[in-house]
Design a protein that fits this description.
By secondary structure, the chain is of the alpha/beta class. The protein is built from 23 helices and 19 strands. Strand 9 and strand 10 form a beta hairpin. The protein starts with 6 loop residues before the first helix and ends with a helix.
Length: 568
């Protein structure tokens, strides 16, 4: 779950869609091992907010002080739309804990805003951003954020009771301290416990009515794939007066495209559909040059040559794509299912048969099942506490509350009697709240604020015990991915720092790929394709690709050892 997660993805992720669905498994909040060998004791150091003796390690520290306090919390996501305190759930949490949040989001480019705050050392109390962002390293290595484990040692030993020890260890720095805590994170133990229920966001989808109208063809082979696009375009040349777009993808960016390959993030939907290995005999594998991957890139080149790829897909940004999805103008998409959840609802309301459904997509020569990315221990975002924080003690105690089972329940279900109640012996959303959540997520966020409207520290495994079953038009998409997911945790956190030699070369390589990918798809002939591809490989090699792979290999091997320890 990386940076391509966005608002509509979050909407679905909160309600029914993220890592798991259904089931009555109840993960225990305190089942993870402690982050240290022995239980830390409370410090005698005083905090400005201290009003009583420190609680015992098994007591929720936040309860010792519920006086009013407001924290500034920065989210590095310009699209985040919600405000704290305007809905019953956030009002309830503020009344309960005394903590109010001033949520800050950038008005424009996220990285520019974050870098400016870092440069000026003007970070707010809390910061949430993607774990892969370079800003995480800048803040930690620059000494701009607090060690969560140090704060817990000094002010709130309860943190070690509710935090997942594997996640703390995963993010531990060379000094042994942990400065971030992830959301939507699944450790190897979680994958072992809930793996059969885990789903993936990576889907190949088709518009149901069109697909069925052309005979539900097999699209796993290059020939079948192109033939289906042809049939769809011939039978449905227009959608409500607008040209049909036979196939859609994620946005093309400076590092590539997630649907094909984003080299900067080493992320590729297509390679997962082709079941390409990430490593062979313990060595990282170059999927980009795999014959199966090249074969399918050439298939898409041929599709473009035959007029089956619209020029729109090369230039459209998220807003334009969402508009066209809501209009049902795409026949097929290699796309993240939760990124079009809101549009799927629009289509479903207009005509249930016009929705997008997941089907078997591009496959390797053996027609092996895809190996889709499931949840990983790195999670989606990480949250840090700035050294500028106005009250260290209240900050770490509030963070402990949020990651505890009590906090997770409050954030997910909201206030009893308002958004949820005990129905048939189980705490669950009230029918009217559940209906609104399933039909209009944006309205639900404003009216209730539950189901992790404020997702900064959500635990997608813990919420299983309250999560309602998936419903259409999302259930089919979700169910299709079950049993096809794998954990790729060991491949996270292996990229070099941006300012290192390897990091600078990695960016050069990613930028070269970002330029090459559209050229490959738009190549007028297979010979032109080969020339462009070979030119890219040559530039990649000259830019230090071997050194980059050596760096990643070392980090990968460290990850494998670390993850093995978590399963002991």
């Amino acid at each position: 779950m990386k940076k391509w997660l966005s608002l509509t993805m979050v909407a679905a992720l909160m309600s029914t869609l993220v890592a798991c669905s259904g089931g009555n498994n109840k993960p225990e909040a305190s089942s993870s091992p402690s982050a240290s060998a022995s239980q830390p004791s409370a410090s005698s150091a005083e905090s400005p907010s201290a009003s009583a003796e420190q609680p015992a390690a098994d007591e929720a520290g936040w309860k010792s002080d519920t006086s009013p306090i407001t924290f500034d919390w920065y989210l590095n996501f310009a699209w985040f739309p919600n405000k704290w305190g305007v809905d019953p759930t956030s009002q309830y949490i503020t009344k309960k804990t005394g903590v109010s949040l001033n949520l800050v989001v950038p008005a424009g480019n996220e990285n520019e805003k974050l870098n400016a705050m870092i440069a000026a050392n003007q970070l707010p109390d809390f910061i949430t951003l993607g774990w892969w962002e370079e800003g995480v390293k800048k803040m930690v290595e620059g000494g701009l954020v607090e060690s969560l484990t140090d704060l817990a040692d000094q002010y709130d030993p309860y943190f070690f009771k509710v935090a997942d020890g594997a996640k703390l260890s995963w993010y531990a720095q060379p000094d042994g301290k942990t400065y971030v805590y992830p959301n939507a994170s699944s450790s190897p133990a979680d994958f072992k416990n809930f793996g059969t229920q885990f789903t993936s966001n990576q889907t190949f989808v088709v518009r149901k009515d069109m697909y069925e109208a052309i005979g539900s063809p097999d699209m796993r082979t290059p020939e079948g794939f192109i033939n289906a696009l042809k049939l769809a375009k011939e039978k449905f040349p227009e959608v409500n007066g607008q040209p049909l777009i036979p196939i859609g993808f994620h946005e093309f960016g400076e590092d590539g495209n997630y649907s094909f390959f984003d080299v900067g993030q080493d992320s590729s939907y297509l390679s997962h559909y082709l079941a390409l290995p990430r490593e062979k005999e313990g060595k990282l594998y170059d999927r980009l040059t795999d014959p199966e991957f090249v074969r399918w890139l050439k298939t898409f080149r041929q599709a473009n040559q035959e007029g089956l790829i619209s020029k729109d897909v090369f230039v459209d940004k998220r807003a334009q794509m969402e508009e066209k999805i809501a209009q049902g103008r795409y026949f097929a998409m290699l796309y993240q299912r939760t990124d079009f959840a809101a549009q799927q609802n629009v289509l479903y309301a207009n005509d249930p048969n016009s929705v997008y459904i997941a089907v078997d997509g591009p496959a390797n020569t053996n027609l092996d099942a895809p190996t889709l990315a499931g949840p990983a221990i790195s999670g989606w975002t990480v949250t840090l506490i700035s050294k500028n924080v106005k009250d260290k003690e209240r900050a770490i105690k509030f963070l402990s509350y949020l990651i505890s089972e009590e906090g997770q329940k409050d954030m997910y279900l909201g206030e009893k009697g308002v958004s949820y109640d005990t129905i048939d012996g189980k705490d669950q959303f009230k029918p009217e709240a559940l209906n609104l959540m399933n039909t209009d997520r944006s309205a639900f966020d404003k009216q209730y604020g539950a189901s992790h409207t404020f997702w900064m520290l959500m635990d997608t495994n813990m919420q299983l015990q309250w999560q309602p079953p998936a419903v259409e038009p999302f259930k089919q998409l979700e169910d299709w991915t079950k049993g096809k997911t794998e954990s790729y945790s060991q491949y996270d956190l292996i990229n070099p720092p941006a300012t290192s030699k390897e990091g600078i070369n990695a960016k050069k390589i990613a930028t070269e790929w970002g330029k090459a990918l559209p050229k490959l798809l738009l190549a007028k002939s297979e010979a032109d394709f080969d020339q462009t591809f070979n030119d890219f490989i040559a530039k990649r090699d000259k830019s230090g690709f071997a050194d980059l792979m050596a760096y990643r290999q070392t980090k990968y091997e460290e990850n494998v050892k670390k993850l093995a320890e978590f399963l002991k």
